[in-house]
Each structure stands twice: as structure tokens, then as C-alpha cells.
Amino acid sequence: MTPILPRARLTANIALLFPDLPFLDRVDAAASCGFAQVECHFPYDHPAETLAARLAAAGVRMTGLNTRPGGPGEWGRAALPGREEAFRADLDEALGYARALGVTGVHVMAGHPAPAEREAARATYVANLREAADRAAPDGITILVEPLNATDRPGYFVSRADQIAAILGEVGRENVKLLFDFYHVQIGEGDLVRRFRRHLPLVGHVQIAAVPDRGEPDGGEIAYRTIFEEIAGSGYGGLIGLEYRPRGDTAAGLAWMERLGIG
User: Fold this and answer.
1) For 15, 146, 181, 202, which has the most beta carbons within 10 A of its beta carbon?
2) Looking at the predicted structure, is the pLDDT value of residue 230 above 80?
3) 131 included as an active-site residue
4) 3 state DSSP class of 158
5) Helix ranges restricted to H, the chain
6) Does residue 47 carry a pLDDT above 70?
7) Residue 184 in contact with residue 148, Cβ under 8 Å?
């Protein structure tokens, strides 16, 4: 059977995959499973030089990372009025790691603004995203923004892809893109294929996981073989992040690839 998508389009999210291993060892585990690319959430417990050496030794490239989650209850600070200086420090750190590691996508986390600050939060978010884009552009780095569904992450500033699409129009920077996570979009909005088609010009990265358990994509309510066919025919040329929580052994669980048309 002809594969729908090549395995080279996948990047393994080592924040969630290989959970039984220390973070740095997950780089080697991903390489052992045939991945040439990994992404993560927060690499900041390890010096960038240490991580760069580990990636180089394994022959693996880091493709994406997040800004720090901030303090208790924040989960990012880009949309928090009054926290602009803290956000700039987060951005400095993330861009520094991205430059050192050759990362091309930085997910800027929005945070949980207070309900009374939602209007001010939008202005803060737009201004911070513009600043992030302008600072990332000389190095060819894309700023990614992701809706986190309100069931898993209640109170997060951006919970829907449609909401982010409107915000990106206001930001007005070519290197700020939507991170289209099929898991979050299915829970928050649904209508995945048509929504993906509608927002395709804004999509800078894709992530996948099963719904509702966030496990391997061969279970749950999303027909991922159909999703992969849609991606393959869409013109989207970017990577697909495996941001799922393995139901068991990560390597054994990768058997889903052949079943769903990844070759």
C-alpha cells in the first residue's frame, strides 16, 4: 500500500513521548525509533549547549519549543497585562535556545488573564506577538500560537482556532502562524477538515493526538487516516508533531504509523 505521508514529515514531541526516560535520553530514544526530528515544550532545565551536543550526537534536529509556562496559574504570559517585562524575558530565553538549536518554530504561550482583563489582554497579546515576530524574523523563526481547548485548559486566553485567525489578522506579521493541533481543535470546535481548509493559509505547524484520551492517533473519535489524506492533498508542507501521551511503551505504540498510512 502506498503511504499517504512520509515518516520524514513527523517530529516526535519528547515532552510526552518516552515518558519513562530522562529528558536528554529521549533524544536518543527518538533517534533509535527512526525520528530525525524532535520537538518539546520546555527545554530550559538543560543548557542549550548541552542539548545541542546531544542532538548532534544523535543526528536529530530540534524543530520546536515553547516559551516558559510562567508562575503558578499563568501558563504563559503573552496575554497578561502588566507582565510585559516577564514576557520579554521568556521571549529572550526561547529565542536564545531556538538560535542555539536551529529551531524554526517557537510557540508563544498566552496565559490565563483574569476575566475582568480580557479586553486589555487582547491588546497586550497583539502587541507582544508583534514584538516577538519582529525579533524572530531575522533568524527565520516562526512564532506559533495555539488554541488550548477550554475543557483541558479552562481560562486560557485562546481556546479556538477561529479566535486565533482573527487575532492574526490584527497582528499583521507574516511569521506569526497558527499551530493547528487536531486534538485541541476537535474538543473545542470540531468540523476538522473544513476548519483546517479554511485556516490553511495561516497554519504554521500541525500536531496530532487521539480524542479524548490524547493517546496514539489510531484510537478515539478522530479518523486520522482521513486527516492524513487531507494534509497530503492540502499543500501544507510543514511538519506534523506527535504530541500524544503513549498508552504504553512508546516504541511499541508506533505501530499505528503503518496502519494509518505513514511510510
Assistant:
1) 146
2) yes
3) no
4) coil
5) 23-32, 48-58, 84-101, 118-136, 161-171, 182-188, 192-199, 224-234, 250-253, 256-259
6) yes
7) yes
39 is catalytic: no
CA distance 231 to 209: 15
For residue 191, count other CB atoms closer than 10 A to its CB: 11
User: pLDDT tens, 90-108?
Assistant: 999 999 999 999 999 999 9
128/134 Cα distance (integer angstroms): 10
For the stretch 16-19, contacts whose Cβ atoms lie closer than 8 Å and that sit 24 or more positions apart, written own/partner, are 16/243, 16/244, 16/245, 16/246, 17/242, 17/244, 17/246, 17/250, 18/246, 18/250, 19/245, 19/246, 19/250
Mean pLDDT of 161-183: 98
All structural domains of the chain:
7-259 (3.20.20.150)
**C-alpha cell belonging to residue 201:** 493559509
Is-above-0.85 flag for pTM? yes
Active-site residue, from 39, 74, 146, 216: 146
Measured in degrees and rounded to the nearest 5, phi and psi for residue 8 equal -65, -15
- In this structure, the number of other CB atoms found within 10 A of the CB of residue 115 comes to 8
What is the spatial distance between Cα 24 and Cα 52, in angstroms, rounded to a whole number?
Answer: 10
The label of the residue with cell 535520553 reads 25
